Input
Amino acid sequence: MKEQIYVGIDLAKGDSKVAVVDDSGEAIFKPFNITNSKEGIRKLLSKLSSYKTGQIVCGMEVSSNYWENMCSYLKEKDVTPILLNPYQVKKYRQAMGFKIKTDPIDAIAIAGLICGRKYESLYISDDSMMELRELVRIKYSFQRRVKDLKKSVLSLLQSIYRDFIKISHIAPYGKSKCLKAC
Output
């Protein structure tokens, strides 16, 4: 049985840079690009087809919103995703002696960090919890928008109808339906 391999993915908007190392930290492939999609994961796994999915460990930074889709795609394919704090990756990259920050260097640093097991993995909620969290975020966003729109309407009404100021102490959006009466 072959050893485990460690895949470092530096996520970006269009294409992500990927570096693959073996147990000893030696590069298996020259860093290459994949898209942030299921097709990109298929390309990655086809390139690593000589390994079983249980032997592949993928690491990525949680620095943008691209990690969520990539993480769920990897889980669908039974590949272990490891989420890393960007600060850990930066410090590891600096410790390796890299003075500059490029996508290939970040991918290599991520792969080396998970290969050396010198990381603190972030907690990943299950998919249903992540979906619930997103729904709550959307709900509060809509509530803020409704509140802002109500303030705008009230301000507009008060500037157009000066008499409205006299009755504005009554909740205009309350059960009394004051706005319908005016």
Q: What stands out?
A: The first strand starts at residue 5 and ends at 10. The chain has two domains: 5-124, 128-181. Residues 4 and 23 are 6 Å apart (CA to CA). Strands lie at 5-10, 15-21, 32-35, 56-61, 80-84.
